[in-house]
Amino acid sequence: MASTSLTNTGTGSGFKTGTLSAWIKRSGLQASNPQSIWAYQDGTNNASRFLPHFDNASDKFIIYAQPTSGTGTEMNIKTNREFRDTSAWYHIVIAFDTTQATASDRVKLYINGVEETSFASSTYPSQNYVIKFMSSTSTSHIGNGGGGSNNYYFDGLMAHVHFTDGTAYAASDFGETESTSGIWKPKTAPSVTYGTNGFFLKFQDSSSLGDDSSGNTNDFTLSGSGKQILDTPSN
């Protein structure tokens, strides 16, 4: 998926509560730039930037955001764990509820069904902070960093990419342990509520990879050389 991205301009003003879920398989490690899974950037000056990504120097996962002023850091949650296994699928879930009074309850990160608790840094967003992913003020991205001087393309495979607008879910709502193999695998039809700007990208139609299967028709536009691959978390 290098040099490929999917884009959509939402209709809302952003969200305080929601969930991002994706199955990813990395190809290139420690690239010259970070590798982003989801992103929002308000213009080219990095104002109100939202950028969950793999760090290019350490291969650690970082949930990063800047405030609307474009100055300073609103959110910077960085794992101690490194993600360097290019043979395995990772299930990454980020659950947001910035209305919570306790800062550490506002963002929860799950990897392969288990909540991540060991962090190299943990700057949580301010209470009631609005994340402008899928808002109407700029374009939201999957697979790159949203423009600017560096695109921060993700290098690898993606499957079952979800966004639930208005509800914070746990990883177990999107995945489950297979009884025979003990492997963490996706639920193909999870019982979740997507809200107005939510989506579910299955990438099942090779001629239209950005089709939304949530029922919202929040389809994404493909740019670059992305294509359908038979290697999936289920096989």
Characterise the protein shown here.
There is one protein chain. The protein has 235 residues and is mainly beta. Helix content is 0%, strand content 37%. It is built from no helices and 17 strands. The chain has strands at residues 5-8, 17-26, 35-36, 38-42, 47-54, 60-65, 75-82, 90-97, 107-111, 114-115, 119-123, 140-142, 156-165, 175-177, 184-186, 199-201, 221-223. The strands form 3 sheets. Strands 1, 3, 4, 5, 6, 7, 11, 12 and 17 form a 9-stranded antiparallel beta sheet that branches. A hairpin with a 2-residue loop joins strand 9 (107-111) and strand 10 (114-115). It is globular and about 45 Å long.
Structural class: mainly beta
The general outline is: globular
What number is the mean pLDDT?
90
**Strand-residue fraction?**
35-45%
For the sheet with most strands, the description reads: 9 strands, antiparallel
Run of helices and strands: EEEEEEEEEEEEEEEEE
Q: Descriptors for this entry?
A:
235 residues, mainly beta, 9-stranded antiparallel sheet, 6-stranded antiparallel sheet, 17 strands
Quick take:
Helices cover 0% and strands 37% of the residues.
Write the topology of this structure.
Layout: E1 5-8, E2 17-26, E3 35-36, E4 38-42, E5 47-54, E6 60-65, E7 75-82, E8 90-97, E9 107-111, E10 114-115, E11 119-123, E12 140-142, E13 156-165, E14 175-177, E15 184-186, E16 199-201, E17 221-223
Antiparallel strand pairs: 1-12, 1-17, 2-8, 2-13, 3-5, 4-5, 4-12, 5-6, 6-7, 7-11, 8-9, 9-10, 13-16, 14-15
